[in-house]
Structure formats: C-alpha cells, structure tokens
Design goal:
Blueprint: H1 2-32, H2 45-63
Transmembrane segments: 12-32, 44-64
Keywords: Membrane, Transmembrane, Transmembrane helix
Length: 70
C-alpha cells in the first residue's frame, strides 16, 4: 500500500512541476513570441494550470491523509 501511495504522490508532484513549467513557458511565449506551436498558444494555459492544481491536490491529499486510529 505504501508503494502505491508513494507512486501517486510522485505523480502528483510531477504533474504540478510540469504544469507550472509549461505555464511559464506559455506565458513567456506570449510575451516574446519565440514559437508558433499550438501547445504554446494563449488559450492552452488553462490546461497547464489545471494540471498544476490537480497535481498539488493529489500530493496534498495523499501526504496529509488521516491514518487509521487518528
């Protein structure tokens, strides 16, 4: 059980950091215009924020969950 929880905790942190990284790259692309790809356009940043929020919630809910007997 601990291995499964650690896997999902790591997945949550990975989603969070990738979401934040892609969001920052998208914002910089909107300001500087260094690429013309679909996944760096302005309307896709909401997806990256969703990934970041989902990832941090997954991490928090698994890390600070109640244990049996508490």
């Amino acid at each position: 059980m601990a291995g499964v929880l650690n896997f999902f905790r790591f997945t949550g942190m990975t989603l969070f950091f990738l979401g934040i990284l892609l969001f920052v790259v998208t914002v910089l692309n909107n300001w500087l215009g260094f690429a013309a790809t679909m996944w760096l356009e302005g309307h896709v940043w909401r997806v990256y924020i969703f990934f970041a929020v989902s990832g941090i919630l997954m991490y928090i809910l698994i890390t600070f969950r109640r244990k049996k007997g508490d």
